[in-house]
Amino acid sequence: MEMKRKVTVQSIFRRFLVWFCLMTAGLFLICVIMFGVLSAAGAVLPANYSEVALERRRTEIQEADIVTKEMIPDNCHYGVYSEDGTFLYGNLRQSSQEKVWKEYKRGGGGDGALGYLKYFPRDGEVCLAVYQLRAEFTNPLLKKILPGVPEGLFLLFIILFFIQSVLLIRRFGNVIRRELEAVKLVTEKVKLQNLDFEKPDSRIVEIDEVMESLVKMKEALEASLKQQWEMEENRRQQIRALAHDIKTPLTVIRGNTQLSCEAESLEESRECQEYILQETDRIEQYICILQEMLKSDGAVKLLEETVAIRGLAESFAENARVVASAFGRNLEVVISLISDYIISDRQMLLRAWENLLDNAVEYTPKGGNITIKLYEEEDRLCFRIEDSGPGFTEEDIRRGPEQFYQGDKSRNSKSHYGMGLFIVQSFAKQQGGRLTLGNAGTHKGACVCLEIGIRPACPEMDDKKNGK
Question: What range(s) does the Histidine kinase domain occupy (predicted)?
Fold first, then answer.
């Protein structure tokens, strides 16, 4: 298929201007040719026709007893004056009679406004004829309608010029409109999320660039919709998995309830009841996970409160040591020089730290090491946690914070369902920070760093918002 040659909008308007000038020049040439043809055909009187006709009748006018209208050409006016300037007769307008006499006495030949004069001396009087040097039509009707041939041709030129302008504007307007219709069609398809289309080819460079941008927008929207669909599908799968997992503790509860009813001793009944309590706890955990999934549909609106960050960090460190000790992990917490107060959401900040701690405790083997460092770097508060667990795979590092992501089973369990790191990253973004995953930690395991932007606060602000 032959490729259309691309043109710019500037070249289109340049072409329009060239066509406009050529057609205007053509119209002028047509009018000139038309004037020549009409003159050759005798339909137009030459500009000096009246002057020549008057000279031909000079003798007749001078010798006649009375100058009649028939002696004077149709497009002329005349007046017969006495020697003292008294207007005797003729068809001169009253307003012109005195002006014509004064021009005669001055010896002038007239002008464009008054008209040009011819003198015809007579016995005791003088005949003054006024004429115009102007080409006129021989047709009486045209002569009556139009003041002269130049004016008529000029009027014709204006009419043709207007028609030409309308046709040219319409022609070039249609070219632009057709190209813009394609842009409009593409934008409508993108608006309706109907993304199954190819890029229409445009011969105008600028519009083709707009098309390219719209196609890129389409591709980005397509990828976003696909990602959203996959996330929703993943969400449905996880909820189905949760629903399936809840059946297991329910089955255990049902079975142990039946056994408890049939137990022959108190010890057997108590053992069944302990199983029931354990499975009830599992159901509560699953319900909490389901609630987290439902909450993740929309971003949580963070509070802006004054947080006693040093006090919160020390309190967290104490609780973290208790948790690590209970699970048989070795924990080291290092709190460097940090601000006393910042503006943040205390509960969400603590929740983010706890999620990272839970993740490290879960994947660190018994007797393993966990290190937490809390420090400030430029205008950011950094929470860095390292463990001696199996670490992250390359896919985990790339996709770990995605909602519902569960990658390598070595760092996954059913207790989080891919929500922990997603919640932490969402909080970090809302605080103007970021969440970074890696493996280059002190213990050669996983390394996670949470950074949030610091907004200093004064301790005099509402103490109740500090959690004190």
Answer: 241-456
| Tokens at 52, concatenated | 């020549």
157-168 pLDDT per residue, tens: 898 899 989 988
Q: In the chain, where are the structural domains located?
A: 9-43+146-182, 48-133, 205-295, 305-466
- C-alpha–C-alpha distance, residues 76 and 283, integer Å: 118
Structure tokens at 29: 């040439």
- Residue 182 and residue 399: Cα distance in Å, rounded? 39
**Between the CA of residue 285 and those of 106, 276, 288, 314, 320, what are the distances in Å?**
123, 14, 5, 28, 20
Among 19-23, 62-66, 337-341, 463-467, the least confident range = 463-467
- 116: which strand partners? 110, 131
b (16+ CB within 10 A) / e for 135-154: bbbeeeeebeebebbeebbe
Nearest in space to 255 (alpha carbons), one of 242, 240, 271: 271
Question: Which phi and psi (to 5°) does residue 458 adopt?
Answer: -90, 140
CATH of domain 305-466: 3.30.565.10
C-alpha distances in Å from residue 313, one per residue of 18, 86, 310: 77, 123, 5
157-160: long-range contacts (C-beta < 8 A, 24 or more apart)?
A: 157/27, 157/28, 157/31, 160/27, 160/30
Q: What is the pTM of this model?
A: 0.43
10, with CB counted inside 10 A (0-12, 13-18, 19+), is: exposed
CATH 3.90.1570 fits 48-133, yes or no: no
CATH 1.10.3470 applies to domain 205-295:
no
For residue 218, the model assigns a pLDDT of 77
